[in-house]
Amino acid sequence: MIVAEGLTKDFRIAERRPGLVGSLATLLSREHRTVRAVDGISFALPAGSKTAYIGANGAGKSTTIKMLTGIMTPTAGRCLVDGIEPYRDRRRNARAIGVVFGQRSQLWWDLSVPDSFQILRRVYDIPDTVYARNLALYRELLDIDALGTTPVRQLSLGQRMRAEIAASLLHDPKVVFWDEPTIGLDMVLKEAVRTLVNRAHAELGTTVLLTSHDLSDIAAICDDALVVDGGRVVHQGTLHDLLRRADRRSVVFEHRGGPGPDAVVRAIGAGLPGATASVTPEGRVRVDYPADALTSRQVLGFLLDRFELADCYAPEPDLETVLRQIYRGGVPAARDGGAA
Amino acid sequence: MSATPGGRLRLALFLGGVGLHRLAAYRLDFLLGSGAFLIRVGLQTVAVGVVFRHVPAVAGWSYHQVLFLLGCALLTRGLDHLFTDQLWELSRKLIQRGEFYRYLIRPVDPLFALLSERFFHPDGIGELAVGAFLVVWSGTALGLDPGPLQWALVPLLILAGALIHASVKLFFASLSFWTVTSMPALQTATQLSEFAGYPLDLYHASLRTLLTWVLPFAFTAYAPAVYLLHGDTGLLRWLPAVTGLSLLAALALWRRGLSRYEMTGS
Amino acid sequence: MRTALRPGRYLPFATSGLQTLLQYRSTFLVTGVTAAAGAAVTVFLWRAVYADPTGPGPGGFTRESITTYLVVAQVLAVAHANRVDDEVAAEVYRGDIAVALTRPVSYPLVRLAAGLPVVAANTALVGVPLLVLFAALVPLTVPAPADAALFLLSAVLSVLLAFCVNLLTGMAGFVTTNTWGVRMAKQGVVAFFAGQTVPLDLLPGPLRALASVLPFRAMADGPLTLLLGRYEGAAGAAAVLGHQLAWTAGLVLLCAVLWRAAVARLEVLGG
């Protein structure tokens, strides 16, 4: 559904110099430099997938989404959305997609939300049944009626985002591109937004590409992950696979009888070289070990041998840790991720 | 539906309706804007009146003839104002703040999507009303008796004048695709349009040439007024060509700007 | 509040004001073209009235002196374009004004400090070239040295007055969102009643009476009366300066009172 082939984007940036002398100098001359924001990335996302597009600030996420939505033309390479090159055939592409750029509004600034929706209904030729069905859904999940007839410019960020999200789904798009869609939303509304997109996915097979700083959004919505770093793809696959790339694992357990927790920590430190153990606030023992030095079999074998385990679980490595590791260059990339 | 001309027209009408609805909702702002505008035009009319207290005619124009010309200028400017005010936003901040993208994610023409945000701008209504009043009042005082051809031409003349205004605005607003903000350039051009409210005969030949052939504001008021007052068609003959060329130049620059925006995203 | 009056604290605002202005160098062009166009329209119009170059015409003006009056009025308008009205209105609209109030400085004085370099730059880079341009194109009156000195004193006062008028205009943002309309109205009223479009001595009786009591007269007509020597002896000059001084003091006071009231309201309503 979404394909990128060697997608590349360069920008020319004018240098401004700081200070009063600097602005005087800028009066006379400007210098430019070229920056490669997206460096020949390739990926293919199947129809009906829900993918998180992950990368540090400045990794080229927004630029890629701009090319996929047809706002921007690539410097080299190409991309396809539902078989259309978006920047070549922007208006046809626009019918098939829904877009949210959380930082910026796309609604009619001076108009109320109902007025904006009426316009969208005509712009996209939304059939009455679809319009009524979706509006009912937004009433239920986003409490859209509460926004009333206030013009968009006077809405709070949270209120505006509710309207933006609804507007992006109103015409039952085949693909939605959401760039930071949950800015300014409280927990309840975030949950509602997740429900909304998951429902659209389940009922209509909507393809989703999402970026978010809120990793819980990603975990709640997406099955797949596309990780870029320095303008290149460093991971494409399921979210689950991504998590398994963590270089540290851990095991948490409770035990009966025998030595006290502090003695257990000391025993593990001595018996399992490379692993570290600590006592959790609940009085359990947590063992952290590097995945390349120890296998889970070794660790669990050691624990079962020495202690009488009452309860034991291995928490999944969390996304934040994995990503921090990737951005530091800790995980070997699919290709080397040198900055442009 | 919205892809066809008919659909576009229906959408435009709907947007106009929404605009008028908004007008009622912001009555105070509207009244303040119209009030400010009335004060300005009122004082301008008084200033012209003061001039004619001291002389019977200026450069061959009488008091009522000058007011007639001023009325024509307001009619064309008002009509343009009614539909294209969002171009100011383009020149001021849409590129600078990265908000322009929103016209590219809809399945409608970007220019249409842009203008649609300020259809039926209330300030234009005030200009049209005052312009119509001045034209009718001074026309009556002058004993003007237009023939059927002139009556038929009046709407076309106003439309052409408005299109010239719109073209100049679109041209200078499109510069923002290169310069990020083109507000100063647009303000400068608009400022020069103020000359159009007075007889061109007052000005130095170089200024007349500038206003006729470079920034063709002469065709937004002076040319039609001279025709309606004296039946003089010397300048008016050029009106269709000037209107067409202005529109073409402006649209060409807009298109180039748009493709540049797609390249740079800023 | 006492610390608010230390001048050194306002220096950064003055330099940053100038820096912002230099970044948007094209604003000079706009100010220049606006002033030149404004001057050209009125000069062309009134020179047509004073078509006979011999002897004084209406209001005792000669062709040269009326041209001088209109051109210098535009130069003064350039010196008055301190952008205080736009900036205050914008800060009130965006709610940034609340942040400005948390600083240990007086906000009106900050605006004055930021506005003065703008005035200086506008005068030097736009006002003076405008005067030179028109002097090259049309004959102007050369003033007597004493009149020129009186004019300079009076022009300084007019800059202060313009600051107050613009501050009050910007503060309209506390009561309406359509500050654009308020600024338009102010611009029209100031241009007319300061004498920029019509020399005030040419106005018919009642309008002239109205113009003479309004403060705007002191912004252009006052200094110009002094420049062109259109006053009767020392008493006449003193009367012009007295009117200016009285209105400057009055508007400064009005600004102070209204600003306090606006801040008090802001503190209650929380912006």
From TrEMBL, chain A:
It is found in: Cell membrane. Its main location: membrane. It comes from the Bacteria. This is ABC transporter ATP-binding protein. Keywords: Antibiotic resistance, ATP-binding, Nucleotide-binding, Transport. It comes from Streptomyces termitum. Pfam families: ABC_tran. GO terms for molecular function: ATP binding; ATP hydrolysis activity. It is a peripheral membrane protein. Residues 22-255 form the ABC transporter domain.
Automatic annotation (TrEMBL), chain B:
Pfam families: ABC2_membrane_6. The chain crosses the membrane at residues 30-52, 58-76, 150-172, 210-229, 235-254. It comes from the Bacteria. The keyword Transmembrane applies. Keywords: Membrane, Transmembrane, Transmembrane helix. PANTHER family: INTEGRAL MEMBRANE TRANSPORT PROTEIN (PTHR36833:SF1), SLR0610 PROTEIN-RELATED (PTHR36833). This is ABC transporter permease. It comes from Streptomyces termitum.
TrEMBL record, chain C:
This is ABC transporter permease. It comes from the Bacteria. InterPro entries: ABC-2_transporter-like. The chain crosses the membrane at residues 28-49, 112-138, 150-175, 234-259. Pfam families: ABC2_membrane_6 (PF06182). Keywords: Membrane, Transmembrane, Transmembrane helix. It comes from Streptomyces termitum. Signal peptide: none annotated. The keyword Transmembrane helix applies.
